[in-house]
Design a protein that fits this description.
The protein has 66 residues and is mainly beta. Helix content is 6%, strand content 41%. It has one domain.
């Protein structure tokens, strides 16, 4: 999967580690520090099965790939 910011259209990085009882602890943020209207929502963090399930993900993430 590739993640891009909906606002500034820059690439994002995503890191995760297993979380118990299920899911993953995620951190998603811009690869470069630039001005972005979504900057106040970043980094996206939390526990979810996939990044698209994090709070504010629909406002921030554009997902490419499967």
């Amino acid at each position: 999967m590739f993640y891009w910011c909906r606002s500034c259209r820059q690439p994002l990085y995503a890191t995760s580690s297993p979380a118990l009882p299920d899911g993953w602890d995620w951190e998603i943020d811009h690869q470069r520090l630039d001005d972005c209207a979504n900057g106040h929502l970043m980094p996206l963090t939390g526990t979810a099965a996939r990044p698209e399930d994090l709070p504010n993900a629909p406002r921030v993430l554009r997902v490419f790939g499967s």
